[in-house]
Amino acid sequence: MRSLISSMDFISRHRQAASDFTRRAIFTFERVVGVLLTNLMRSLQVELDPFFSRLSLPSGRSSNDDAFRMARKKLRWQAFVELNQAVLEDLNFAPDWHGFRVVAGDGTTLYLPTTHPDTLREGGEGFGCCHTDTGIYSLARASALCEASTGLILRADLAPDSKDERSMLAAQLDHLQPDDLLVLDRGYPATWLFALLYAKQRHFCIRLKLDFSNQVKAFVASGASSAVIEVSPDSSQRKDFAAHDLPFQPFKLRLVRVPLKSGQPEVLATSLQDPAQWPADGFAELYHKRWRIEEAFRNLKCRLKLEQFGGETPQAIRQEFHAAILLHNLATIATQDVLVEQGREAEFYAPNLTHAVHAVRLYLPRLLDDPALIEEIGPALFDSIARQIVRRRPDKPTSPRKSGRKKPRHHRAYK
Q1: Are 181 and 228 in contact (CB under 8 A)?
Q2: What average pLDDT does range 179-200 have in this prediction?
């Protein structure tokens, strides 16, 4: 990754102007990327001081928060997207369910700073805002694809909250591979989305609401464990089909019943129609794998404090969003490497991802400044993560969710 960041071709693609990052300044292209990767959760100068304390600066030179603010304006946020793809390309994902790589898709909302007019503006790069009796707030919608066996974010996009999850997912389908199996929760099902997945030849397993259609209601009442139905789109859905250039014709879905501990059934719709090859009793395990993306969002929002944005412009918000995705992936890869080196299976052992993120943030500045230090930094990072591995306890009871619990809102430090 360090060689890619330093390449002139990469720098030229991800700077705003040809003259940017050409002077011998404190905030080089690599250092601006590094500062953003270390996650701006505190006041900006407090974040800069430890970052540069690990680097050798020329005598009399020091980092300054105002200089960093100017330097980050020269960096395109797409740099972090390309870096993330480069990191993922070097990995080999083994199939983890009947020859498929399971990929979970989901979305979440993020509270944004409301102090910059460009952020609140509708259209363009803005996210818009909502007015309430207590003031205004701005929301963004994030959509992500997550590799279910590791928790790595394969693709993530950020848009105004006015854009729905299905549309954002539709734009991400081309990033799936032919042997991927997409797992979605019950907020996604739509007739046009099923048709789109078939048109793109993407296998899927999607939870349905029990009243999704009359056919689903009849399936629930039948008590059958599995059934194949034919779905015929009606005239009210013609507009959605035309918007995605889909043939307006019937298609088949397999419905699978999954009994829950509460006694209520769960109904899944899937493209895997052969019950002999994919028995119904295996789909409970498959759908449970979707929970990995919920854990990834929790790490991003609760551990990396993703909603505590240091910047206030749409460009800065997108920089920090995609930098957090990359940091999450780097820490996840480091924990997976530790498990492999120690011969421990992820099913029974879990590294502390929060600690791994802290360790990566600690060593990243020196590694970006001098890649040759990998021989020294690699073992130190390995040992730090290895000390924080615990055995999984799948039967451990969880504390009940408090009734009336409200989503925590963190105060933003001024940066």
Answers
A1: no
A2: 96
